[in-house]
Amino acid sequence: MITSFIARKNVDDRAKTVFAICLSMATFPGQALALQAMNDSQLSGITGQDGLTVTLNTDQLAMENLNVELNSATPGDTAYLSASGVDFTPVNTAGALDTNPIDFTTTLDVGSDTAGDPFLSVGLDLSRTRLMVDNFTVGDGEPTEAALAANASSFGELAMDASAKLDYVNRGLFSAATSDAYLYGELTDFNLYYRQINDVNAPYFVGTGGTALWRVNDGSIGIKHHQTGDYIADLLGHDVYSMHTSSDFIDLQLDYNLGFKPGNGSSLRMTPDGATGMMRFGWTGTFYNTELDFSTRLLDDSSGLLMSSRTNYLRADGGTSANLTPLAGAVPSTSSAFRWIFGNAEEIPDAWGAPAASNRYATLMLSDWRNMYDNTGTPLPYGHDFPYIALGVVDGNTNTGYGDLCWGARGSGLSGGGCGAPDDDALYDYETLGFTVNRPALGVSIRQGNLLSYAETIDVYDGSDITQPFDVDEA
Predict the structure, then answer these.
(1) Nearest to 325, CA basis, from 315, 339, 334, 340
(2) Nearest CA-CA partner of 264 in 273, 277, 255
(3) What is the 3-state secondary structure (H, E, C) of 16-44?
(4) pLDDT per residue of the chain (475 residues) written in tens, 0 to 9
(5) Is the CB of residue 394 less than 8 Å from the CB of residue 405?
(6) Cα 267 → chain centroid
(7) Is 429 left (phi over 0), alpha (psi -120 to 50) or beta?
(8) d(CA 52, CA 77)
């Protein structure tokens, strides 16, 4: 897989390298900090002097194109995904352009813990900013400027308003050798927009009032080599390197209201006001015994984007979805039972006979998750287990190999024969997803994915605040 970009100003290769590194790091929203004692127990022994701080203050950051080029196992068989008109601008909570500039601060520190072991600290802090992508396209071959200009296929435009921060401490920038790394990332009060057609009259989806949080306590974060005996390598049938995260406790939150808004007929700028609410959706709580991997090598040895994930859930009784016995060790103070929340996103006028001006929300919360059982009556090891989620661009010319997201003939795990090799045990007759295309497209392959748990507790609430229970007297 090759990632490239075309900037609006000419830059040399060193600047491109620095930009690529910064772009990769920016995928973890962040906060600047000096390496010093922290409240979290796993960081309490780490000290150091103030490091290098770089602050960028600007009215706009922009790229003409950001391209991801994917190569199949067949030489010369390539396709690409391109984001054009990538733009960062300051924005206020109403979605309007803000007069205050973007503040983006990066801090790097090096220190040591009480045992003298070296640690690296990275802090990122981004003020409220709109990330706008005018156009997502796919195409065959190389993403040259001429090819991009002639490409008429589009998946629409995407924007997000948010402020962001990150704290990251590890023994190296991407060292997965130990299990004492710490990561905290947050998106605050984010609004997410998607419009399929670039037209002032076109409607668009709006996700408002969102919060996203990710905290890894005492984890392993970095590049990992998966070899024979490792479940990912065994499933793929070959060694693979991944960006790996694992931890006993990962706290997360994703909560937002999804709405729908018509175009205003005069402006392309997408804003959150006046949207019709459709639903509220959220996850909050703690994953337990989690592994998460991202890599770029797929079944047929072609390049794509591959994610593998498996986890259990923390319960309110102190146990986990895999074992109801309360955990014997200390649970981090930030951790809590995993909950799944959904309901309506707008107030219901005079709901359930409530007095006027006393509108209600309807919200459900699912918790106390428990893994299902195998045919011997033993709880399954993971409540969520998705070892193979592959994303790529389907080549519209050859439609072979990665162009059809080849699964191979069905064998042990995910491995097996090559594409097109007949096999009586093949999941599909042609060992592929069973379709061909005559133009570029996005393709997703999910193999052996399982949601193997259920909620033992369902709470019903009549307010947007899930601490307020359902009032049976007004039902």
Answers:
(1) 315
(2) 273
(3) HHHHHHHHHHHCCCCCCCCCCCCCCHHHC
(4) 444 434 333 333 333 333 333 433 333 333 333 333 344 444 444 444 567 888 889 998 898 888 887 766 566 667 788 898 899 999 999 999 999 999 999 999 888 777 778 889 999 999 999 999 998 888 777 788 888 877 767 788 999 999 999 999 998 888 888 899 999 999 999 999 999 888 889 999 999 989 999 999 899 999 999 998 888 888 777 788 999 999 999 999 999 989 889 988 888 899 998 888 888 899 999 999 999 999 987 766 667 788 999 999 999 999 999 999 999 888 999 999 999 998 877 654 444 444 554 455 678 899 999 999 988 989 999 999 998 888 877 666 554 434 344 444 444 444 444 444 444 443 333 344 444 566 677 777 787 788 999 999 998 887 656 666 666 555 4
(5) yes
(6) 30
(7) alpha
(8) 44
- Altogether, the residues listed in the chain come to a count of 475
Beta bridge partner(s), residue 246: 220, 291
Tell me phi and psi for residue 177, to 5 degrees.
Answer: -75, -20
Phi (first) and psi of residue 59, to 5 degrees: -90, -15
- Give dist(CA 419, CA 436) in Å, integer: 13
The reported pTM is 0.79
Buried-state track 183-206, b at ≥16 Cβ within 10 A, e below 16: bbbbbeebbbbebeeeeeeeebbb
Distances, alpha carbon 321 to alpha carbons 213, 254, 369, 377, 381, in Å: 22, 20, 5, 15, 9
Question: Distances in Å between the alpha carbon of 329 and those of 182, 248, 319, 332?
Answer: 19, 11, 11, 10
Asked if residues 227 and 258 have their Cβ atoms less than 8 Å apart, the reply is no
Query: Maximum CA pair distance of the chain?
Result: 70
